[in-house]
Amino acid sequence: MADPRDVLIIGSGPAGHTAALYTARANLNPLVLEGEPSSTSDQPGGQLMLTTDVENYPGFVDGVQGPELMTIFKEQAARFGAEYHTVKATKVDFSVRPFSVWADDDEHRARAVIVATGARSLMLGLESERRLLGYGLSTCATCDGFFHRGESIAVVGGGDSAMEEAIFLTRFAERVTVVHRRDALRASKIMQDRAFANDKIEFRWNAVVDDILGDGKVSGIRLRDVNTGDQSDLDVSGVFVAIGHAPNTDVFHGQLDMDDNGYILTHDGSRTSVEGVFAAGDVQDHIYRQAITAAGSGCMAAIDAERWLEHQSVTPANW
Amino acid sequence: MPADPRRDPLPMESTLSALTDATFEEEINAADQPVLVDFWAEWCGPCKLINPILEDLATEYDGRLRIVKVDVDESPDVARRYEIMSIPALVLFQEGVAKKRMIGAKGKGQLVQELAEFL
What we know:
heterodimer; A: 19 strands; B: alpha/beta; 24% strand; globular
């Protein structure tokens, strides 16, 4: 394979796969470093790998399962020759061209790089989380809901992800308590309506989780009312946290300009602060965060990269 | 209508052998090498992601490590006995005794590192 490559793509959610599809069809022989397996959303396929029904991705009248959608995306890109390595990028050097990206002990060099590493779910930041992760505290509702059949569980958060998890978990649990720090949800109207209509779902408003309780496994959570400061304990066997996301940008610190929350700053489409490096999907978007917008921005990054490479080849003085 | 959670978006075939509630005890006790048990289910995406890694490891460490799978849906008793509450869960058995437990999907390098003392 040519060294350097024309295009290297880091990440394999909707943005990464779409960038791979477009650059592969443009004969740019993209290599995708798709990430490594994990039980969080930082994994090959990204956040959709931990979801069930995706009902708002156009083209699927009856909805589609998140993992199935990502499998289809990947197969479509691979059909045009996109190459995938199941490794995680651990170091990058964007200060010289061609750019270098390391994964395991291998160095990959590329003339253009598309960053599509996405975002991961935030945890609460409690000491008890480390102790009880996998023992009632879960990062994957689709994986672990099964183990709470007939039991009471808590979902922390008030957005779409929290509602989706709460509704999904009612398939197993007898009672799902949604714990939200405000007095109103920020989830979309349709998800709110579904959650409110579900008689297995209860809400604890204006409450934050001070601690997850349990010796060996989760037995409850300690809640604090944000208005009164009063603490109370809620008996649950499971806790699922969906309080928001953080971008997967640790490896790009000092290389690409970011905002205060670590999201990569883009301008003029998908361009980053380094010419020849493009960013797409949730790694540069904390506003829309949809599969369709990520896919769209992956397409933009592919077209931007293709045109930039074309421009480079006619003006070799830049190299 | 929400899709059936048991509908399988990623059908999986594994070359690793499966143990069940009926066969688990006997096979684990009879093993003359460490046995890594992969507790998994069809509806668990991360479980499927690690299967190819486990297949690789089974080949690489053939003769030193046996890797088997337990479908928690089909064999709930074994899963309950070992207090599995999150999958994928990998439990390493030596001479019939559970010695180490790893929860959540991991990359190959990390798995090898965590298993090093048993290989």
